[in-house]
Write a structure and sequence with these properties.
The structure holds three protein chains of three kinds.
Chain A: H1 16-19, H2 22-38, H3 42-59, H4 63-70, H5 74-87, E1 92-96, E2 99-102, H6 103-129, H7 132-143, H8 153-183, H9 193-199, H10 201-224, H11 243-264
Antiparallel strand pairs in A: 1-2
Helix pairs in contact in A: 2-6, 2-7, 2-11, 3-6, 3-11, 5-6, 7-8, 8-10
Chain B: E1 8-17, E2 26-36, E3 41-45, H1 52-58, E4 67-72, E5 75-76, H2 83-89, E6 90-93, H3 106-110, H4 112-116, H5 121-134, H6 150-162, E7 168-172, H7 180-197, E8 200-205, H8 208-211, E9 216-221, E10 224-229, H9 231-234, H10 238-243, H11 250-260, H12 272-286
Parallel strand pairs in B: 3-8, 3-9, 6-7, 7-8
Antiparallel strand pairs in B: 1-2, 1-4, 4-5, 9-10
Chain C: E1 7-16, E2 24-34, E3 39-44, H1 50-57, E4 65-70, E5 73-74, H2 79-88, E6 89-92, H3 105-115, H4 120-133, H5 150-162, E7 168-172, H6 180-197, E8 200-205, H7 208-214, E9 217-222, E10 225-230, H8 232-236, H9 239-242, H10 251-261, H11 273-284
Parallel strand pairs in C: 3-8, 3-9, 6-7, 7-8
Antiparallel strand pairs in C: 1-2, 1-4, 4-5, 9-10
Chain lengths: ~270, ~290, ~290
Amino acid sequence: MLKDVTLGQYFPGDTPVHRLDPRTKLLLVVVYIVALFNAKGWWSYALMAAALLAACALSRAKAKTMARALKPLVLIILITGILNMFYTAGTPIFRFWIFTLTREGLRNAVFMVLRIVMLIAGTFLLTYTTSPILLTDGLESLLNPLKKLKFPVHELAMMMSIALRFIPTLIEETDKIMSAQKARGADFDTGSLIQRAKALLPILVPLFISAFRRADELAVAMESRCYHGGEGRTRLRQLRFAAGDYAALALGALVLTGVIILAKRGL
Amino acid sequence: MDENAPAVRAENVTYFYASADDTPPRDVLCGVDLSIAPGTFTAILGRNGSGKSTLAKHMNGLLLPKGGAVYAFGMDTRDEALTLEIRRRVGMVFQNPDNQIVSNVVEEDVAFAPENLGCEPAEIRRRVDEALKLVDMYDYREYAPHLLSGGQKQRIAIAGVLAMRPRCVVFDEPTAMLDPRGRADVMKILLRLRDELGDTVVLITHHMEEAAAADRVVVMADGRIALDGPPKAIFPQVEKLRSLGLSAPETTELLYELRQAGLDVPLDALSVEECAAAIRDGLQKQK
Amino acid sequence: MNESPILKTEKLCHVYSAGTPFETAALRDVDLEIRRGELVAVIGHTGSGKSTLIQHLNGLMKPTSGRVLFEGADIGASKQATKNARCKVGLVFQYPEYQLFEETVYKDIAFGPRNMRLSADDVDVRVREAARFVGIGAELLGRSPFELSGGQKRRIAIAGVIAMLPQVLILDEPMAGLDPAGRDGIMENILGYHEETGAAVVVVTHSMEDAARNAERMIVMSRGRIVMDGAPGEIFSRGDELSPIGLDVPVMTRLADRLRAMGVPVKGSVYTVEQARDAVLALKGGGGAC
């Protein structure tokens, strides 16, 4: 059922990666992405791949689950690969009609595909090992300094966590509304694209109205529990860096440096 | 805050909803005077549109009276500086369990109120555990709320309010969306609040059986208080209740019908036990 | 008397999330028959399978095994058969007012008949008839449903299903969340539809009192099975079987039992106030009559 969809597919566990502070993981993902986009040649990509594989092993992520995360993007990956293969200028290897396969093209294609796959794998690991609530907590904490610039950090974090909390509820409600309209003969499966789009109205209108009503009632409930914005709010769960976090960040910095050095040498 | 003040006091409260167009505003409360003593369980009954929910929302300052005044433990709800303190002391539980839950994890949701009040993390932890134990949901503290039943969710919502350590809790039709098991669980907690914690409990409902457990029953109609007294004094007024769009508990209705047919039975035997005894005695008197 | 049932299930089973660690059997070998024009109440706790069952009766859900037959034909046999069943077996969900979406009451009630591809004239007749059944005046047809009260919205939602003129009308907790006046109103409307069209009506509820007052037949479900099926009096005489499955007998039945335990010989089935009154007055005997 739709109910089983959790955003980003979080799988609870007790691995070293799970236990890392969410801020560490968020920072590492940023470092990872920067490194990935700096990688130039086989050696730098090899270093990135080694780092990724080590992280996967440590978080005991199953290859099957990762493959499932990649599935929706197979088309994009293929198109990128093919475009790069046939449209990069350089020494031609093979000619077919208007398509020219060049050596550089082949190389670029491989690197592009690797980059996309590793990008997805990296963010997959982040959501695999960190619950949505911790992710928002970590994000809020990292963005805190922006409060001085009047950036609404608390409000954004509150919005994100409420949205996350209501996703399963809204999915359930959509199911119910669909069933109710189907019981009145609504058909969502047949017809042209336009017909199917129109058929969504009996679902979207009640859903939106319901969402607004929920928001109203939730706001009243929050005020009744003394909510008054972010001023003076404390938290039950405190984020604290441990030795493992410093180690992980240090390693991340090392990998980044390594990749930059290798890339500078064209490796 | 005055220790001896009534938990909630409404003085000649009027309230109306302004309309968007030129039609005259809809009067919802027309001069309500009500004083609720601390430590008591008061049930407020009335048909839909009688103003009972609107009155409830005045008790913690969610709505401010257009005329008259409302005092919570002696504090005027119109005084903005006191709003937070009033809401801390007068908690409110609403009808829809889902629309009161803010967080993805049960204990985080219960922590919402103490977090808002700026409590230290250790204190928050204490209050969360205490509140969850009070509603018998401590074992579910790490669950995701959307996996729980309606009754369980409502208990989490109640725990979320109890974590503020209020002195009075107002329940606005808390069981309307629950099945009998859920309803029974919530009623159990309500009584526990009065009996074990000495809190003031105000229950807005239209289930007569729930009101029968209260110390005092207030019946509202058309924005005014129509009846006010202990359950045994209110429920026997079967005709009056019917005219107000309510019904009496079935035991009372039966006794009323039997009385009409000439049997000598009291009208205030509410429980099954009392009612059966009353009927038996009434029949014996015939002989 | 011996006519075949209009709706029937044969060994109906439904398993959720089969093959995963969350596998649950919501329905186990359910054999059910609904006859034309019957007034049935289905009672059971949350988790008894009653909500799953009713969604099979109009083809919204497909059985894991077993069949559902409407007028003897398997509704799952073809897409057409399922569509057909959906028009003949109307289903009103809980809190149906949350499905309203059209700009006017008229248009919303017309949604069902329009999906049945009826002519504009036929649709008009259906809409007005349905509105009449639920007590929605013609002057409200042009208004936006969202301007109206909760009770009115619910009636409009029910009208939306009645407009399809189902021969079996199934309602899931139609009176949930309404005040006593609202409850009586809705029940009256439903019974009105039943009397005028002769349609079978199935009400799913967990209120024993509501079931007792209106049903001719009660089906009790527990853990995906039908455990009791009979007239209310019959069901309520088995109170000791009801409590283990988390249900209770109506207040009046408990009262009658208590009276009997006290030595007052109350006769017959008692589960409504009227029956209790009559039973007690019967014991009053002669003398003192007005």
